[in-house]
């Protein structure tokens, strides 16, 4: 098994506390509402939303995948960190055992946020992850993130 690690950074004009509430804490409700073509639904299968919780994300009609299951590893509301592992679903293929994600929001000097994300792809055997596959995933994540940011700008009283 190999582990391939990729890091990404996004910036936002939205402050970390507000962004964390929308992007992490309420994503299961917000994303299907503003991007139903991407995510149809999110449901907790096990747990209370904290560490150890298992969620099933069902993708929308615009996705090439049907569903994934995530296991929340840790969530820190004070330090704006969220770690989870994609443990099941058709996005994993027969070459990837799991993908672990670490997300941290930090304040930027202009009052917005810097979103730092690290992805660890745990492969089966000696498979190598192609950069195109990772780039495609990053672009979809960035598009979804921009939708959330746009929603927050259009709804200044939401998630305060």
Descriptive keywords:
seven-stranded antiparallel beta sheet; globular; 160 residues; 3 helices; alpha+beta; 41% strand
Q: Could you characterize the architecture of this molecule?
A:
By secondary structure, this protein is of the alpha+beta class. The chain has helices at residues 16-25, 27-34, 131-154, and strands spanning 3-12, 39-46, 54-59, 67-76, 81-89, 96-107, 113-123. Helices cover 26% and strands 41% of the residues. A seven-stranded antiparallel beta sheet has the order 1-7-6-5-4-3-2. Helix 1 (16-25) crosses helix 2 (27-34). The protein is globular, with a radius of gyration of 15 Å. The relative contact order is 0.23. The mean pLDDT is 92.
Concise overview:
With 160 residues, the protein is an alpha+beta fold.
Helix and strand topology:
Layout: E1 3-12, H1 16-25, H2 27-34, E2 39-46, E3 54-59, E4 67-76, E5 81-89, E6 96-107, E7 113-123, H3 131-154
Antiparallel strand pairs: 1-7, 2-3, 3-4, 4-5, 5-6, 6-7
Helix pairs in contact: 1-2
- Average pLDDT works out at 92
- Percentage of residues in DSSP E strands: 35-45%
Order of helices and strands: EHHEEEEEEH
N-to-C span: 43 Å
Please give the share of residues in helix.
Answer: 25-40%
Strand order of the largest sheet: 1-7-6-5-4-3-2
Number of helices: 3
Major sheet: size, sense and barrel closure?
A: 7 strands, antiparallel
Poorly predicted runs are none
Number of strands: 7
- The whole-angstrom Rg is 15 Å
General shape: globular
Judged by helices, strands and strand pairing, the structural class is alpha+beta
